[in-house]
Amino acid sequence: MGASNAQTATSTATAAILLSEWIPVIGLIFGGCCSNVFALESLVREVPKCGNLITFGQFAFITLVGLPSHVHLGWVPRLKPRRVPIQRWMVMVTLYFCVSVLNNLALGYNISIPLHIVFRSSGLIANM
Predict the structure, then answer these.
(1) Do 52 and 104 contact (CB within 8 A), yes or no?
(2) What is the spatial distance between Cα 123 and Cα 106, in angstroms, rounded to a whole number?
(3) Which of 60, 63, 58, 53 is CA-nearest to residue 107?
(4) Cα(13)–Cα(45) distance, integer angstroms
């Protein structure tokens, strides 16, 4: 009887910990996704040709955030040694950029935003 109560208490504690961690995570993921779609839809409704500006902003932000970890700051700044050749990275960046620009052009055809999000997420195929 005592072992059963201890196992039940352990299971209950584990479930409480998992729920306390996963509920905020799932809420933030879906909240961020929904707010992103809402912001995109609002921007596109007001300024239909703003897609390329949004893509440029995304690329600039990612570049600025990632640059410090990839550049050696010395007398002359230079890239740190890489395990993957830069040519392979350039192919991936070019593919991702082209897919993003083409997806932005699709906004000009008045397709629904959820359908656009499905097409835009197909850019992940290039990364796989």
Answers:
(1) yes
(2) 14
(3) 53
(4) 48
Query: Which own/partner pairs from 40-45 qualify as long-range (CB within 8 Å, at least 24 positions apart)?
Result: 40/113, 41/113, 44/107, 44/113
Dihedrals phi, psi of 71, to nearest 5 degrees: -120, 135
Inter-residue contact 104 to 51 (CB < 8 Å)? yes
Model pTM score: 0.57
Closest CA to 127 of 83, 91, 103, 77: 91
Hunting for tokens 């192919």 — which residue is that? 91
The answer to whether residue 123 scores a pLDDT higher than 70 is no
Element (H, E) at 107: none
Task: Please tell me the predicted confidence (pLDDT) of residue 125.
Answer: 57
Residue 46 structure tokens: 């007001």
Bridge partners, 71 (sequence order)? 79
Amino acid at 40: L
